[in-house]
Amino acid sequence: MSASSATQVSQKRRRADEGAQACPPLNEMTKDETLWYSDGNIVVGAGKNLFRVHKSVLSRHSVVFGDMFGGPPHAGEEVDGCPFMRLFGDNPAEVRCMLNEMYGLRARSSRKVSLVLLCALVRLGEKYDIPAMREEGAGIMRELYGLDLFTFQQRQPSSSSHLFGGPVDPSSRADFPVSPWKREYCFDVYVLARDHGTKRIAASALYDCCRWPLVNLKTETIPALDPDVLWACALGRELLAKQGAVQLLKLDPKHVKITVTTGLFGDSGPGCQQEQVCGHALEKNFETIKAGMAPARLDPIAPTFNDAYVNQLKKQLCVSCGQKVIRALQNDAQAIWDALPDTLSPAIMGLPV
Known about the structure:
The protein has helices spanning 3-18, 55-61, 63-69, 92-102, 115-127, 131-145, 149-154, 185-195, 199-211, 227-248, 253-258, 275-290, 308-314, 319-338, 340-343, 345-348; strands at residues 30-36, 42-46, 49-53, 78-79, 82-86. The chain is built from 16 helices and 5 strands. The protein is α/β, with parallel strands linked by helices. The N and C termini lie close together (8 Å).
C-alpha cells in the first residue's frame, strides 16, 4: 500500500469516528464573535461554528473557493439571508485561523505560531489551495523537523539545549517557530507531515514519537492518536531497535581500529597508546555484544556523551581508542539519519489493510 493510500484510509477512519458531531444542525451552531461581518455575503460553517465573511476575500486567497463561488448560483440553506456553506471535516479552530489569515488579523509582533495555526497553514493551505499559507506552513515544518543530524541531536533531552523540556522553554528561543511547545506535539507534526507528503519530516517526527514513553501519555491525548499512529510508533520502535543492534556491531575491534579520527589541526588523530590493554577491552566488549548481553540501543542517533554503556567502555581505553569508538558510532548515526525516511517507511505507510 502506498503512502498516499495509507493517508486516505487514515482520513476515512477519522471521518467515520467524527460521526454526526462533524455536521450538527444549523440551530445548534453558534455565530463567531469576531468573524461575523454584517455586510458579509457567505456564511461558512465548521463544527458548531458559523463565520459570516466575504466571498471576494475567500476567492482572492484560495483557488478552490474562487472556483466554488464561480459556479452556478447557490440553492441550498441560508443563514440571515446569506448562502450557507459547510466545510466538512475541518477543525473549527483551524478554519478560524485560516479566515484570520485571509483577513490579515494575525498579530505579527512575533514570528512564532501556535500549533493550531501551523495545522491550519499546512492542512487547509493545501486543501483550499492557498499558496501563502501552504508555503509558510512548509517552511515552519522544515524548521521543526527538516534538520541536519547535529541540530536534531542538540534538541534532544540529553543535550543542554533540547526540544522537550529542561530549565529553558525551547519555544522561547528566537529560532524556534512554535510557541508554546509541548513534547507530545511531535505526534501532531508527524500526522501533518505524513498526510501532506513530506517524508523526511514525517520520519524525523516519527523518530521522536517512537522515543516518547507511551505509558506517560496524558489521557486526553490518547484518544487523539488514531490506530495508524499507534501502529507507526510500535513498528517504528522495532525498526529502530534493529538499527541500534546493528550499530553496536560497529564496535567490532577490527572496525574500531580502522576508524579515522581527526586531530586538532585536521590531521589524523594519534595512534593507540596502550594496544594490549585497549585490544583486550574492545575484544571483551564485543563478546558481550555478540552474546546479546549489551544494553539495547533504542536511540541509535542520540549523542553518545550521555550513554552510560559507551562511557564505561571509554574508561577502559586510551584517549585515541575512546575517540575511535565515538567516531564509529557517530559515523553510523549519520548513516542511520540519512536513511531514516526509508527505514521508517513501512511504519509511515500505516496499518496493513
